[in-house]
Amino acid sequence: xxxxxxxxxxxxxxxxxxxxxxxxxxxxxDFTGALSARERVEQFLDKMDIERERGITIKAQHxxxxxxxxxxxxxxxxxxxxxxxxxxxxxxxxxxxxxxGALLVVDCTQGVxxxxxxxxxxxxxxxxxxxxxxxxxxxxxxxxxxxxxEIEDVVGLDASEAVLASGxxxxxxxxxxxxxxxxxxxxxxDPKAPLQALLFDSWYDSxxxxxxVVRVREGTLRKGDKIYLMATQREYEVTEIGVFTPHPVALAxxxxxxxxxxxxxxxxxxxxxxGDTITHAKRRATEALPGYKEVKPMVFAGIxxxxxxxxxxxxxxxxxxxxxxxSFRFDPDTSDxxxxxFRCGFLGxxxxxxxxxxxxxxxxxxxxxxxxxxxxxxxxxxxxxVDVENPSRLPDPGRILAIDEPFLKVTLHTPAxxxxxxxxxxQDRRGTQIGxxxxxxxxVILTYEMPLNEVLFDFFDKLKSAxxxxxxxxxxxxxxxxxxxxxVDMLVNGEPVDALSVILNKEKSHKRGRDLAxxxxxxxxxxxxxxxxxxxxxxxxxxxxTIGAIRKNVTAKCYGGDISRKRxxxxxxxxxxxxxxxxxxxxxxxxxxxxxxxxx
Amino acid sequence: xxxxxxVHFPWCLQRCPYCDFATEAINPSRIPHARYADAVVRELGLxxxxxxxxxRARTLFFGGGTPxxxxxxxxGRVIAAVARRGDLQExxxxxxxxxxxxxxxxxxxDLGVDRVSIGVQSLRDEHxxxxxxxxxxxxxxxxxQTAVRSGALRVxxxxxxxxxxxxxxxxxxxxxxxxxxxxxxxxxYALTIEPGTRFGxxxxxxxxxxxxxxxxxxxxxxxxxxxxxxxLGHYEVxxxxxxxxxxxxxxxxxxGEWYLGLGAGAVGxxxxxxxxxxxxxxxxxxxxxxxxxxxxxxxxxxxxxxxxGPETRVQEGLMLGLRTAxxxxxxxxxxxxGVDPRVGREAAVARECARxxxxxxxVRWSIPRSxxxxxxxxxxxxx
Lengths: 600, 383
Fold this sequence. Notes:
A: alpha+beta, 6-stranded mixed sheet, B: 2 domains
């Protein structure tokens, strides 16, 4: 039997990275008795190691808790954890729309950050009841009054009843739960209406196939039901229904307002689109829930095995990662320089880094990743339009009428002292300022429209160093605009190395080409022969650097007592060479392919 | 099985700032000449007994440290013990100019020593001071003359290049002077900064004046020209000899043969299997007191060991052989290890040959002399 909607509360937690979301979530689990003492591994909701190391959540999770409130009633609380990074904005918006309320957790030693703000707006848009929580009140540098003021000024929420809490000491956890019961409205819905359930997360399980997490809006979902996914237009039979408490518990049904998971022999997570509506196959809902959108990768990069024998291992590893990541895409690719590999699509740079790190760490692969590129929309003279994800595949300039590039609306939150430097940075990155708002005397919100291309090239690190680490950023794609773009090719000993080609704004192409050539000179070791590094635009050389030949690499003495040590040194040299890619007769290290990210 | 026997003498009068060998500065009156010789003779017995039968010593080399400090009578007892276990074709003693005189040369001759290797390093006082040596240029010349005049000793000199402030002119003049004195073998080493030495420390702190590698390479080429013009053959990366005057002991290392190391801090590498394909390398602990004590109890001295399998022997065979003009005898290496070095290296060999880095004569690989300066890079590609 499902719980009556008036005794259900669905809520999520919105917080900036490091503001203590996961610790707070653990305290809530603790308080409601969901975890035994032995299970109180810190931050239960973050499953993956990488997430825990980086302190961010990649996959959303849900957990059903039971709480007897001061009014004497037993409530079913569904805590829905959301991913916490700009790359996953759409997933966040879907998770939020599965809730009626949200806790806005603000570290009151830090104040409101740009990322938090973006998610609060998403929550407000989704019409959630937002409860401010001032976290880390136990720290000496905590300033709850100021934070409360900031929440009112910046976010525009009434913070007079904000809950003071500390995930570390457990202060305020009960107050949070009481607020959830009192201030978050209960869900509504008719258990007899045609089924409408929002799919907001999924993962791959090798026994069950893709398992999806749903929020039932209308109707009742039962084990054995034939269901229909409205966006993918496929039918399945539900083999299992359950919830996490946080342990998986099987259920017979989910009624309106409830959150849980279902398995239905769905082969791949790619058939479970986040935002899709699940209804019954026979008695379909007349319309899908609003807000569905196809998620498309925004950033592309080539991933190649350093040693071509690892190609199959790389493909297997990518397939395994894709099983659990519906927004990750890859296709076979070949490069003259790097051989056989894959062109991979990511939601953003963080997503790319995570995938790359998992490939190297979990699958022990030596990889070369090429510089990330956006998808350019190239309009040809013959009227066709082609999408170009790989700079080396840009059509011949003679055939190109115009190149359009993706633009972002970038929101920057910065201390007032850094505004000048950051405005300069944005201007350098072809940004157009569309807004500037003071948030109290020393915080500023800047809004810019900027090409994604410019954001890819180390913008985030530059932003951090310009603001001594205090600025934060959020972005959203706002569409394509025509750009004055050219492709810069890099030649090594006269041979173009396709994997080093980059598409750049024409005005900056000469300087960046020169900088790239000199960066390559730095990272490519001296070889047995002189190596020429050239940058070229359309066959015209714009920069040249020469790496002098190495003249001496030999041990002076090699007698009986030196042999083992010397052999080990040579083994190390060989290992080092294995991690490089030989292009022509030149050994190019991995970092050379990302050199474009390291120039000013 | 032929054995190259190396005896380490772990004491010097003073430690040189660039040296990372197992040696300790000692007041000469405190050197335990006889006790150390007894221990070495005992170790020889233990080691030989543990080897497959038929192992014969062919060359004997006293290195160090400064073995020329060793009391000739005690040195002689070691020579006699080794000679009884083989038929020695070459007996070399490393010397410092300060511990070499006519009398010592005469005693050594009587003991069967037929080769001396003198640590001249340079014939310039300023370079000798930079290197922290005890001798001066005049002393070095005198030592060389003394050894040559003693007759019956083949004389080799060690020279260092790549020193800060050293010019090519000064270097080649030194070489010509040594050759003029009658030296028939030269070991010319580029100064190498080893971690853990005084020079290593200074270099780490950026306080050691040094020459750039490119300059050192140019000097290397000047050394080669000078020696060849004088009629010496360049037979190993750092070694030059008149015809017939090569170091047979060192040639055994470079052929990848087994060698017996004796003494505190000595390294040896001998077969552990009957077929001689797999072996073990050991490094005796550098502590001379612990070394002597163990042997006095009839035990092996404390040592670190490393198994040397056939694949490792092949790698080492390539690494060593490719340092020499002769190159690597592929059939010989295959026979010794049971592993054909050609298999699995076809592509790498073809590539290095195409680049002019390797000569493949089918039965033999060698690196052309013009590429010896890059030998480590080339060998690493063949590993």
